[in-house]
Design goal:
The complex is a heterotrimer of chains A (330), B (363) and C (339).
Chain A: H1 19-28, H2 53-63, H3 65-87, H4 119-155, H5 157-172, H6 175-186, H7 190-218, H8 220-228, H9 232-268, H10 280-287, H11 296-323, H12 325-328
Chain B: H1 13-18, E1 30-43, E2 46-59, E3 63-67, H2 74-82, E4 89-98, E5 101-102, H3 108-114, E6 119-122, H4 136-148, H5 152-165, H6 171-174, H7 184-196, E7 202-206, H8 214-231, E8 234-239, H9 242-248, E9 251-256, E10 259-265, H10 266-271, H11 276-284, H12 325-329, E11 335-336, E12 342-343
Parallel strand pairs in B: 3-8, 3-9, 6-7, 7-8
Antiparallel strand pairs in B: 1-2, 1-4, 4-5, 9-10, 10-12, 11-12
Helix pairs in contact in B: 4-5, 5-7, 7-8
Chain C: H1 2-29, H2 35-39, H3 45-54, H4 61-74, H5 87-122, H6 127-141, H7 144-158, H8 181-188, H9 191-228, H10 231-238, H11 243-281, H12 286-296, H13 299-327, H14 329-332
The chains are: A mainly alpha (330), B alpha/beta (363), C mainly alpha (339).
Chain lengths: 330, 363, 339
């Protein structure tokens, strides 16, 4: 749970004396009285005011080197995805059968696949697909999940029960299986895949939001806010939402990585993009037969998936650590 | 003291006789001698010296109270002596001599032999100090079997007797319970039973009553006094509550900012405190009849200093009404006086008038 | 405790019904008409109509659902559009293979995962922790099917330690008693067959279990770390018991309780992952069957499989929840009044 954000309550001047008061001051960050006491030079850094939650998060994240590297890598990926067609050395969908299954060389950095297409270009082009699907799927899941969760949390009663039971039912089917079944109903194609993967992730976000809204009714610090006279709306916007937002951001980042994995899985099974469009999973699926004679066709797309997912996972982990208030008091 | 091979508990008449009357405090043989203990916590922001050159003794059968506010280092000192400190804390210097051996230099195995067996400790939070997934029986018999090498049946029988001794009704039934089925007071009794099950010479009680209701507090203190008489063990009672000290302690050690500032027999301390800090503490206790209704309550002015940035010179000087030039410049040493009391102060408060400086307590 | 059990079991029923509705509506209502796919695009309109009539697709949706539901409760999951044989039979013929794979994977994931997690937590910030955590991180990031491919490339193609696919060498197949080759081999006393089946099982089980192992490692690590910070661990040390006992008994037990929930959830992800692994290793289980059926629009089969998998998953989670409740005394004995 997020800290009681002191800046929203009027500063209460306090007389320092026995350390009970000192401890409380330490915890709440209220400014000390300015009665001069010669020889008493208290160190500012221990009694600083709590800062903006987001600034703290940024600082903490910056200290985490792995997360920082991942962030840079992801930004790079985004650039590659956007630049896509302009930076591929070859046309990713141009086949040339005479050039098929050539191992990596100076002309073809990653070699060529079974249809003579340059793998390097296809991997680059595939970046756009994976990132787009990942982002879109998570966006769908997020918005739908937040709305459903909010409704469930506010309305309560049987509306809440019904919505959460439906979420439970969705969770009762393993996500890949559900996604595949949805694809069977919707048909093949990358756009259908986005919807399928998105739908499958909804319950997660719905639960988070609902949980946070329910906490309005239950938490002690929320009760304290009521006592001090803050309205429900203010409580929601200043306290509940920022806290929910931080959890959601972490989950969404990790959600992108699992969306990318799911996309690749669907592609591998032949349910994603349609040939000859490049997609990492699809590339792996089609090259499977050549596992022993042309391993390079399988190595690079797989590494691309792993590296991307790893980056998002590291970033998500870093964000989670950065947003955990306990970790802050080091 | 007791016969361990039968597994039954006998009270020790020898122990009872060893406890002299209050004004003969400090006469018994010393069982624990802490010398120059220093503990620090190495953190990113700097090194916090939580315990600075602390020395005190514990005598056989007595109750030694260690008083201080939160952050004075009293708990850390006890944990250091028991070698229960976890990183980033570490003992930087000193010796803790128990029956001739320095505990800080023992091997891990030898130390384990001491813990729970010769020296036991109970902690502040009874609600969280017992393992929730094991029964009371399980947790009690564990130390009994480890140290006294009894078999399961004998250990359980002893456990039940211990529970009875600490005042838990129907102990043979309660022994099968889980901690969450008991109240805080009950759990603290169980903890006490656990600590005493191997009849240690010394019990360290770290704020045993702080987390409990006032009424339960009284019960637990009475229990400790009773058990002390029965077993003849010594008790280190760590607390911030002077009321508890007045009620239970034979001798008192006052700590401030990681240092011992005063040590005396309890009666002497309350009659005439010698350190300005102790004075301030006693003064802060609101009296029922003395205070006029429009007089502000007394508080020691100022704040406990930042442990990362302790003052040079006397740690209490910034808040002290008796301070001199020397106090701010130099650190007073802990001096043993002719009457046996120890004091860390340059000033004789019985002889000087307090001179509160500007910036005093406002409303 | 009994009340809790009954309550949980009851909660399962509406979820199951809901799942059946979801599956049914996905297949019958939202899917494209299967007739052209099954009969081919050149089939006549009359033959397609006749086929639909014969398969009950012209009846009102609600009655179709009830037929389906009552059939399912009796164990009849319909008939495959293609093979014309009962779905239930088709599924159960292939089921043992998948269960064998999933079980092997979960055992690997749990044993190795818990071990790594405990070591990482106890030796926090040491090299063990760093390596273990890194391993776990890669484990959740690597696609299962690619891992399988890498395993085949390396352990099969390069080192020749293990076969690259299939469940057993055809000639060594033991007499079918349970459908689990290793069990059957033992029953028969055929150790050659047993070894061979084991050889075939290792790579796919490792590939399938890696992701779950990583998750369990992380979960165990954080659970242990939290437990190690608790007061009762300090109490245990103060009693003078050996550090091994402090970790192995006092810290481990409470830490493992939340891990049981995770294991239950991971089983579901394993069932999903089996689809991919079976594809890579040509493992003749229901996974491959599912994918093929979906591509062929053989809806009764897909319906049957998804329903069955969901039922199993729900059951496993129920078991995990009940195990959690029985392991944690605070839940098990919560009905007793506090004195």
């Amino acid at each position: 749970m997020s800290e009681w954000n002191q800046s929203s309550v009027d500063e209460v001047p306090t007389m320092g004396s026995e350390s009970q008061k000192a401890d409380e001051t330490l915890a709440t960050g209220i400014v000390l009285p300015d009665g001069e006491i010669p020889g008493d030079d208290y160190d500012e850094t221990l009694y600083e005011k709590p800062e903006n939650q987001w600034l703290e998060m940024w600082r903490s994240l910056r200290a985490n080197r792995a997360a920082l590297v991942s962030l840079i890598f992801i930004i790079l990926l985004v650039l590659v995805a956007v630049a896509g067609p302009y930076i591929t050395p070859y046309n990713p969908i141009e086949t040339e059968m005479s050039n098929a299954l050539k191992p990596p060389s100076a002309e073809h950095w990653f070699g060529t696949d079974q249809l003579g297409m340059d793998i390097f270009s296809r991997v680059i082009a595939g970046t756009r697909v994976s990132l787009t699907v990942g982002l879109l799927a998570v966006s769908i899941a997020l918005t739908t999940g937040i709305v459903l969760g909010a409704i469930a949390g506010y309305a309560g009663g049987w509306v809440d029960t019904i919505i959460m039971r439906v979420m439970d039912m969705m969770l009762a089917i393993p996500s890949i299986l559900l996604a595949i079944t949805l694809m069977a109903a919707l048909g093949k194609g990358i756009d259908k895949a986005v919807i399928a993967i998105g739908l499958v992730s909804i319950p997660e976000y719905a639960r988070i939001v609902r949980g946070n809204i329910l906490s309005i009714k239950e938490n002690d610090y929320i009760a304290a806010a009521h006592v001090v006279g803050l309205s429900d709306a203010r409580i929601i916007f200043r306290h509940v939402l920022p806290n929910a937002l931080s959890v959601i951001i972490v989950r969404a980042t990790l959600g992108i990585s699992s969306a990318i994995l799911d996309t690749a899985a669907l592609g591998f099974l032949g349910l994603g993009v349609q040939p000859p469009q490049p997609e990492w999973g699809d590339m792996l699926g089609r090259a499977r037969g050549f596992i022993f004679q042309a391993p390079h066709t399988l190595l690079y797309p797989g590494m691309a998936i792993t590296a991307t997912v790893l980056a998002f996972n590291l970033l998500g982990d870093g964000l989670r650590d950065a947003l955990d208030p306990r970790a802050r008091i080091k | 003291m007791t016969t361990q091979d039968t597994g039954t508990i006998m009270s020790s008449p020898a122990g009872a006789a060893a406890l002299g009357p209050l004004d003969a405090c400090g006469a018994q043989p010393i069982i624990l001698d802490v010398r120059g203990l220093s503990t620090e916590f190495v953190m990113k922001r700097g090194t916090v010296r939580a315990v600075r050159d602390v020395s005190f003794t514990v005598r056989e059968g007595e109750v030694l109270a260690i008083v201080g506010e939160s952050g004075s280092g009293k708990s850390v000192a006890a944990l250091s002596a028991m070698r229960l400190l976890q990183s980033p804390g570490r003992v930087a210097a000193g010796e803790v001599v128990y029956r001739g051996k320095d505990l800080l230099s023992l091997s891990a195995r030898e130390m384990r032999d001491i813990r729970g067996n010769h020296i036991s400790m109970i902690f502040q939070e009874p609600m969280t100090s017992l393992n929730p997934v094991f029964t009371i029986e399980d947790q009690l018999t564990e130390s009994i079997r480890t140290h006294l090498k009894l078999d399961k049946k004998a250990a359980t029988a002893r456990a039940i007797e211990m529970l009875r001794l600490v005042g838990i009704p129907s102990p043979e039934k309660r022994v099968k319970d889980y901690p969450h089925q008991m109240s805080g007071g009950m759990r603290q009794r169980v903890m006490t039973a656990m600590a005493l099950s191997c009849e240690p010479d010394l019990l360290i009680a770290d704020e045993p009553t702080t987390a409990l209701d006032v009424t339960i507090q009284a019960q637990i203190l009475a229990l400790l006094a009773d058990l002390r008489k029965k077993f003849g063990m010594a008790v280190i009672l760590i607390t911030h509550d002077l009321g508890v000290v007045a009620e239970s302690a034979d001798r008192v050690v006052v700590m401030y900012c990681g240092q011992v500032v005063e040590e005396a027999c309890a009666a002497d301390l309350f009659e005439q405190p010698l350190h300005p800090y102790t004075l301030g503490l006693l003064e802060s206790i609101p009296g029922m009849d003395e205070t006029e209704s429009d007089e502000p309550l007394y508080m020691i002015r100022g704040m406990v200093p930042n442990p990362l940035n302790l003052p040079t010179g006397c740690a209490f000087a910034p808040r002290c009404d008796y301070r001199t030039e020397q106090c701010v410049r130099e650190m007073p040493p802990l001096v043993e006086r002719a009457d046996g009391r120890k004091l860390r102060c340059f000033v004789d408060v019985t002889d000087t008038a307090p001179t509160p400086v500007a910036g005093e307590v406002a409303e | 405790m009994l009340k809790y059990v009954i309550k949980r079991v009851f909660m399962v029923i509406p979820v199951m019904i809901g799942v059946s509705i979801i599956v049914f509506s996905l297949m019958r209502v939202f899917s494209p008409d299967p007739a052209p796919i099954v009969l081919g695009q050149h089939a006549t309109v009359e033959s397609m109509d006749a086929w639909r009539e014969a398969n009950g697709l012209n009846d009102p949706v609600v009655s179709q659902y009830f037929t389906y539901l009552t059939g399912a409760l009796k164990g009849d999951l319909g008939t495959s559009y293609y093979t014309k044989s009962p779905v239930t039979g088709e599924i159960f013929a292939r089921f043992p293979a998948t269960i064998e794979l999933a079980l092997a994977a979960i055992v690997f994931a749990t044993v190795v995962g818990v071990l790594l997690g405990v070591v990482a937590a106890v030796k926090k910030n040491s090299i063990f922790d760093a390596v273990g955590s890194l391993f776990a991180l890669v484990g959740v990031s690597i696609p299962i099917f690619w891992l399988g491919i890498l395993f085949i490339m390396f352990f099969s193609g390069y080192l020749h330690w293990f076969p690259s696919g299939g469940r057993i060498d055809v000639l060594l197949k033991p007499a079918e008693v349970t459908g689990f080759y290793m069990v059957d081999a033992v029953i028969e006393g055929n150790w050659v067959a047993f070894n061979n089946a084991l050889d075939h099982l290792i790579l796919p089980a490792l590939a399938l279990g890696m992701y779950s192992m990583a998750i369990i490692t992380r979960m165990t690590r954080s659970s242990m770390l939290e437990t190690l910070g608790q007061d009762y661990i300090r109490t245990a040390r103060a009693k003078g018991i050996s550090e091994t006992k402090v970790i192995g008994k006092h810290a481990l037990r409470p830490s493992l309780i939340p891990v049981t929930t995770v294991i239950g959830l991971q089983f579901g992800s394993l069932l999903g992952g089996a689809l991919l692994t079976e594809s890579v290793f040509s493992w003749p289980g229901i996974g491959k069957f599912t994918v093929d059926s979906i591509l062929k629009s053989d809806f009764p089969v897909v319906q049957g499989i998804v329903l069955l998998v969901a039922v199993i998953f729900v059951m496993i989670n129920l078991t995990a929840d009940l195990a959690y409740a029985s392991l944690d005394p605070r839940i098990k004995y919560s009905s007793k009044k506090e004195r």
